[in-house]
Amino acid sequence: MDFELSPEQKEIQELAREFADREIEPNAAEWDREHRFPREIFAKLAELGLMGTCVPEEYGGAGADFLSYILVLEQLSRADAGVGVTVAVHTSAVTLPLLAFGTDEQRARFVPPLARGDHLGAFALTEPEAGSDAGALRTRADAEGDGWRITGAKQWITNARYAGTFLLFARTDQETAGARGVSAFVLDADHVRVTRDEEKLGLNSSTTNDIVIEGAVVGRDRLLHEENHGFRVAMKTLDGGRIGIAAQAVGIAQAAYDVAREYAKERHAFGRPISAFQAIQHKLADMATEIEAARLLTYRAATLRERGEPHTEAGAKAKLFASGVARRQTGEAIQILGGYGYTKEFPVERYYRDAKITEIYEGTSEIQRLVIARSILGLQEPSVAGRRG
Ligand code: CAA
After folding, report:
1. What is the pTM of this model?
2. Could you tell me the CATH superfamily of domain 7-120?
3. Which of 37, 43, 192, 311 could be disulfide-bonded to 305 (CB atoms 3.0-4.6 Å)?
């Protein structure tokens, strides 16, 4: 067991930290207030290679390892969780599955523009009636000529408004219900129409959209992996993506803790700094402990993934725990700041709003428990899908 980051990992962590402190954190409150998607930030991140941190150099990336990418996400999310999720979806939910499942031709064609940050990626799985039950999706891809005609609607698609490449899941076998019969496709922005911008509790600097696909005709070169085996692409993608969301949660929780600790040292009550009171000390001690535990689970899952070892369970545990820490401890940070914490004068109310989504997207905490339970009980086939008969 080695808890030390390598010199390369430390260097990339420092690069992301400095960039986040200089370019992101000072603007995050304004982006949140104005619901502004900071496009210029992604161009700057691309210049640093951070839109393709763990993508091999031959495909236009920075060639770092998966843990380095996780360190970057943590630092970006510490400054602004909306920027964090934009990069997370772009990288782990689009670029990496294209690398993992693409043919040589698909990799050469689709990965470099994403890894270089020339455009953003969006992951289009969820539909109005297929959220946790992703296998219930209805978007259809009907065979036409040597390819398919795709028709349907997707909901809550992060990055869609600004994306150039979509990893989209559609049903190619209309006779088969559930996860079997789903295929993965690579679409361009002109295959898709963005119909709505979601208004959210937080993450206001990220974009979340409804999209429709109105008879987009695509050839076989757009099919990722095997026909009718796209659900596996989605699940493997989420196995890695969930580690990214865990890192986002750690970053948010760390930001809240940093503000609460400094505030506790400066704020006086009853003639003493409030950090002198045991009630506050215990809160800070719990925050520090839980954040460290969440970080270790996250780094461990990332390390397993990097080594090519099974990481479904480890990633689900990391996301389950880290998202709970972020939700709880951002609330405790508000409590330490008292009335100030509830105002926009301090950023902790934003952290609190941003933290909640980490318990929901890329699989709710309930779905993470289901994934963990199946793994520890050795259940191959889930009872949830069984009901479809
Ligand atoms: N790796 C590889 N294959 C996997 C897998 C994994 N981790 N998990 C399942 N599979 C395979 C199964 O082996 C099965 O394959 P076969 O058909 O060949 O046997 C197939 O996938 C279907 O699996 P299940 O029978 O387990 O499917 P299910 O219908 O019971 O669903 C589920 C499983 C875990 C509940 C899944 O639907 C799920 O993860 N739901 C949550 C969806 C989710 O996380 N959505 C996030 C949206 S993206 C997002 O949020 C991005 C963002 O904006 C930040």
Report:
1. 0.97
2. Acyl-CoA dehydrogenase/oxidase, N-terminal domain (1.10.540.10)
3. 311
**How many C-beta atoms surround the C-beta of residue 162 within 10 A?**
17
Q: Which of 161, 231, 323 to mutate to test the pocket of ligand 1 (most atoms within 8 A of CB)?
A: 231
For residue 210 the two structure tokens come to 């409804």
Catalytic residues: 362
- pLDDT, averaged per 10 consecutive residues of the chain (389 residues), comes to 95 98 98 98 98 98 98 99 98 98 98 98 98 97 97 98 98 94 98 98 98 98 98 98 99 99 98 98 98 98 98 98 98 98 98 98 98 94 48
Tokens 């161009």 — which residue?
43
Q: Which CATH number fits domain 122-228: 1.10.3720.10, 2.40.160.20, 3.40.50.2300, 2.40.110.10?
A: 2.40.110.10
Which CATH superfamily, name and number, covers 232-376?
Butyryl-CoA Dehydrogenase, subunit A, domain 3 (1.20.140.10)
| Residue position matching structure tokens 């045991």 | 278
Three-state DSSP state, 94:
helix
Please list every protein residue whose CB sits less than 6 Å from any atom of ligand 1.
85, 89, 93, 123, 125-126, 132-135, 158, 178-180, 231-232, 235-236, 238-239, 312, 361-363, 367, 370-371, 381-382, 384-385
Residues in the chain: 389
